[in-house]
Design brief:
This protein has 209 residues and is an alpha+beta fold. The chain has two domains: 2-96, Winged helix-like DNA-binding domain superfamily/Winged helix DNA-binding domain (Arc Repressor Mutant, subunit A); 102-185, no CATH class. 39% of the residues lie in helices and 18% in strands. A two-stranded parallel sheet has the order 1-4. A two-stranded antiparallel sheet has the order 2-3. The chain has a two-stranded antiparallel ribbon with strand order 5-6. Helix 3 packs across helix 4 (51-63). The chain is globular and about 60 Å long.
């Protein structure tokens, strides 16, 4: 496995810039050096994706030269194919992507998470009868929340927070370190768990007026 592979075709770029494909590829990249590879069924244990979709994606990645078939594992019936990544990391020149520019590329990366979060939140809110927007001051922040007619709040199991705030350089550094630590702590999937959406955004800037 080479250290870094720079792709050279638009097809390779499209495959790598797909979030679902990237999750499947990530399972292969994360294998220890010298490992025999993963079968499609083993990939599904790390990535919450149906086996049929994993097979399809692995075939596309293989055809594009982004992964390799490294062997066969005997089993009852017919042997299963094993796959490994060709590199520890991949580089996609912006010119090969379908995006008109860097902003469009970033929007394409973040939008599926925000859309999915909104879709799932809407279902939870409607199921719990939350139909009133409450604006309240907590500390120095004005926050919006949804409550029911009698002030009932959303049940536990979800959390969302966006704010525009003022931080000193020291506090900004502390927050960035804490967020990075949380991201590393919960990066690995739990095979016995259920799907969750987790997002953390932090950047210098302000809301457009």
């Amino acid at each position: 496995m080479q250290e870094c592979l720079t792709v050279t075709t638009a097809q390779q770029a499209r495959l790598l810039l797909s979030l679902r494909n990237a999750q499947i590829l990530g399972a292969l990249i994360g294998q220890p050096e010298g490992a025999a590879g993963l079968s499609a069924a083993e990939v599904t244990l790390e990535v919450p994706t149906p086996l049929k979709a994993v097979h399809r994606t692995l075939g596309q990645l293989l055809s594009a030269g982004l992964i390799e078939q490294t062997g066969l594992r005997p089993r009852a019936g017919r042997s299963c194919k094993l796959y490994t990544a060709r590199a520890r990391s991949y580089q996609v020149p912006l010119a090969l992507s379908d995006a008109a520019g860097l902003r469009e590329l970033l929007d394409a990366a973040y939008r599926p998470f925000l859309d999915a979060f909104g879709r799932h939140q809407e279902g939870r809110l409607l199921d719990q009868g939350l139909d009133t927007v409450r604006l309240s001051l907590i500390g120095s922040q004005l926050l919006y929340s949804l409550v029911g007619p009698q002030g009932t709040a959303l049940e536990s199991g979800t959390y969302g927070h966006f704010s525009a705030t003022i931080l000193s350089p020291a506090h900004a550094g502390e927050l960035q370190a804490e967020l990075r630590s949380l991201g590393e702590k919960y990066r690995q999937s739990d095979p016995d768990g259920q799907p969750y959406l987790l997002g953390m955004l932090f950047s210098p800037g302000e809301l457009e007026s």
